[in-house]
Amino acid sequence: xxxxxxxxxxxxxxxxxxxxxxxxxxxxxxxxxxxxxxxxxxxxxxxxxxxxxxxxxxxxxxxxxxxxxxxxxxxx
Length: 76
Description:
flat
């Protein structure tokens, strides 16, 4: 994860979730990462079906992007 000191000062890298999701990809045992990704995927899809306009806000706060998921997040 390439986060500069300047980026950190303005809030990037503060989300524990985004850091955790990306860090779990580094380990040889991929099960924890897949479990977190799949669970997150399920609940984000459910939420975004109800509130599709919240996607950008949630992604920003969680510090995640669509590329963090192997299965695309669907929102209306």
